Beta-ketoacyl-[acyl-carrier-protein] synthase III (Limimaricola variabilis), 323 residues
Amino acid sequence: MTIRAVVTGVGHYLPERVMENAEFEKLVDTSDEWIRSRSGIERRHIAAEGETTSSLGANAARAALADAGKAAEEVDAIILATSTPDLTFPSAATMVQRELGMTHGFAFDVQAVCAGFVYALTTANAMIVTGQAKRVLVIGAETFSRIIDWTDRTTCVLFGDGAGALLLEAQEGEGSSADRGILAADLNSDGRHRDILYVDGGVSTGTTGHLRMEGREVFRHAVEKLAQTAQMSLEKAGLTAEDIDWVVPHQANIRIIQGTAKKLGLGMEKVVVTVQDHGNTSAASIPLALSVGRANGQIRDGDLVVTEAIGGGLAWGSVVLRW
Ligand code: UT7
């Protein structure tokens, strides 16, 4: 018998305010045409005053619990991936725990920027297969609109706010790649690349800071490293790209998504794409795309799903799971 961490619920939350590309034409020297053609982004959601990463995350968590037909009292742990927590501490995860009225178990944040959800899923899986928790809420939630430099056209047009969540539950499997649940994961980081994607503030500066990115450099690393990590986790699961039903990539740029699919030898009909509607929501982008892909009937029970992401650090990784 093998313990597997199986997805039993998924949900998401997006702030009400939608900001179309055209609005940026009034803020910086850009155009709808440039943003669409270079990134694939058409619009993004922006958190309202008073909305925070933890409030977005709590709404997504409620949706995932409702999808699974479970209550917060039945959850053992909350793992929340974010690099835009409400405060330096306590963790946004404990704020979600409080919002859900959950007074038992444990909650903590994972910070691996855009790769955060893949890191959080891998951590939750490790806790479930080693018996430390039976039911774990894994959340990706971000309010990047708060760390964007709204005068920098090379970055401000790319990001959005949102949250997605999965409920993972321990279930028995056979130990084969036909099992439901997380089958393999692959995590990587390389701190030498700090300066191509970072926030220029934090405890050491006494400011929140703004996101700074050398987009072209990050792009170059992304296609190569994302295809590599997806291949690595497939290999660990004893599978190949031909077995994939859906790739659910981090949604940063349609050209990165297309380039990675091509490297894996997959057509775009096997890729869940939400970047046009959400922009880059960092750690929230994968659970948001999983939730949208599930809601619109793309991802079905038994489908083999590969998620992959890269972000600041650089940190990158992938997870192979059967829904
Ligand atoms: O989620 C974390 C990981 N992040 C990513 O994956 C992002 C990776 N990078 C990218 O997605 C792309 O590199 C960008 C979308 C950021 C940029 O696309 P690009 O094709 O790499 O463009 P570029 O940076 O090479 O810029 C081309 C030109 C430049 O002008 P010059 O130097 O050629 O005269 C930029 O100044 O486009 C200019 N530009 C803009 N023009 C209009 C940059 N931003 C804008 C803008 N509007 N918003």
